[in-house]
Each structure stands twice: as structure tokens, then as C-alpha cells.
Write a structure and sequence with these properties.
This protein is of the alpha/beta class. The protein is built from 14 helices and 7 strands. It binds guanosine-5'-triphosphate and magnesium ion. Magnesium ion binds next to helix 5.
Length: 305
Amino acid sequence: MGRDQELQERIQGTMNGDTRSLAKLLTLLERGGPSVVAQTPKLLEPPKSAFRVGITGPPGAGKSTLISRLIGLWREKYDLRVGVLAVDPSSPFTDGAILGDRIRYHDHALDPKVFIRSLGSRGSLGGLSASAWLMVRAFDLAGFDVLLLETVGVGQTELEIMNVADHVSVVLTPEGGDGIQGMKAGLMEIASTFAVNKADRPGADVFARELEAALELDPRSMSSHPPKVFKLSALTGDGVFDFLSEIEAVRTDLLRWKPHRLEPRRLQAEGRALMMVEAERKVRQAASQIQTSQDLGRVLRGISS
Ligand SMILES: Nc1nc2c(ncn2[C@@H]2O[C@H](COP(=O)(O)OP(=O)(O)OP(=O)(O)O)[C@@H](O)[C@H]2O)c(=O)[nH]1
Ligand SMILES: [Mg+2]
């Protein structure tokens, strides 16, 4: 079977709700890169949009544990189809679940309405966000209601994930030591909801109050949708439903997120991420042809002309 034919079959299967087709389509997207989307109008303008929730925060804050709880509630109380794309920059693995997450998400492994995929940053495309940009579209096509995007740490990845997601939540714990001051720069600004996790341990009340006080200085505090802080324990489940209810309120208010998908700002961010990987691939290929100083001179003259 040729690649085009395979792609068309996977697209059709994905649209029919076949999970194996979705898994294969994700692999085709990861390996084939932007050209797969370019050739596929259905991926460019999918009939449905899965509400994308970015869940980010420091390593070990409890992101995966919280996601597992959220999946449970969405399945139980709302019967939604839930996808997870766990982006793990430290992991060399792609194409399947990372071991720790496999254990953490194990409760949902047999649920046909839950689909979990992990993505290492050293995937074949190189660029982390480029793969994510491509793969999220497959979840739209598959008709998922919600797609959770887990990313770790804070840096370029998180800032980029903001453009991919329709709503961003940051998971924090009171255990950082130096409270709000110790938070990495940029973390406050990117989220609309904050989960102060591990509230079963001491310090959560003080931390949550500090966070709320800091957010009062945020210009968004004057808007109709100010950032919100939730104290919870992903381990015991306490407080998770309130957090989920807020995310549900956003998800079901289509005007609050859907039109933003097609904003030039977001389409440009996507174009930028995808063009960057292609450009990098071309640069590497051209550079690998350089054998002599003359070759180098020719290449440099080529780019400066
Ligand atoms: N006490 C307590 N422990 C928790 C809670 N949530 C998560 N943990 C524990 O914290 C550790 C890290 O949890 P994960 O869910 O893997 O955290 P993560 O943010 O996904 O971690 P990375 O993906 O590695 O960055 C695990 O041992 C969890 O059992 C909580 O609410 N309370
Ligand atoms: Mg995790």
C-alpha cells in the first residue's frame, strides 16, 4: 500500500472512530511531518474541535496524577471522549506510553473512549512543538471532546503549548520551598487556572493565598474571566471536581475558545513551528553535503545572496 493510500485509509478509519487508525495516523503525522497535513484538507479543517487543555508545571508536581483523575471524572460524569498527549522532553521514547505514565494512566487503559499517547522531544521531527501541532489535529478529526496536553517544566515548550491549547492550567505544589518567589518566570502569565496540588500535605493554604494575592496584580484580574486558583489533592481526589467544573464551564462556552482557534496569531504560531522543522531539516541536509572549504563557501554564498 502506498503512503497516500495508507494515509487516506487511516483518515477514514480515524473519522469512523477506529482507535487503531488513530494510532497509525499519529505515527504517520509524526514521521511524515507537515506534508501530511498539507495534503489532507480534512486535517486542516476538521468537522469537530477537541477542547485542548494544556496542563503544565514543574517536574513531579502531580500533572499525570491529576490528568488521570480528570479522565475518570470526564468519563464517569459526562461520558466524554478524552485524549491525552503527554509531551515529555526528557524522554527519548516516542510511539507509545512512557513507562511511568503507563502505570499512572493504567486505570483507563481498557476504556475505548480514552486514548493516551506520549511524545518524546527527540522524535523524528526534532521539534517538540511541531509534532504536537501535527498530532493535535488528529484528535479533532477523531471527534474527541477533550484533549489534555501534558508538558513538563517551563521554558519554550510551555510558551508554545499555550498557542496549541485552548485553555492552560498550571499545576503547582506548596513544596517548592520559597513559595511564589521561587516560581519560574513566565509560569504565572501562561495559565488561566492554577491547581495547587498535594493539598493533603502542609502548606497548601498559605501557598494558595500567596498565589491569589500575586494574581491580583495580574492585568487579567480585572477581566471578565480572571485567573482562578484551586486547592486540590490529585492523590485523594479532594477538590478535583471543582477544578474540573471550571474547565467544563470553559469547554461548554464555545464562544470563549472556539473562535480563537482560527485567529491569525494561532495559525501563525502553527505555521512558524512547522516551517522551523522543515527549515532545520533542509539546513541539516545541505550541511551534510559540505566536504571541502569550497563547498562551505558555496553554501554560505547561497544563503547570503
Ligand atoms: N501527597 C501527594 N502526592 C501526590 C499528589 N499528586 C501526585 N502525587 C505524587 O507525586 C509524584 C509525582 O506525580 P506525577 O503525577 O507523576 O507528577 P508529574 O507532574 O506528572 O511528573 P512529571 O511528568 O515527571 O513532571 C507521584 O509520586 C505522585 O503519587 C497529591 O495530591 N498528594
Ligand atoms: Mg507526568
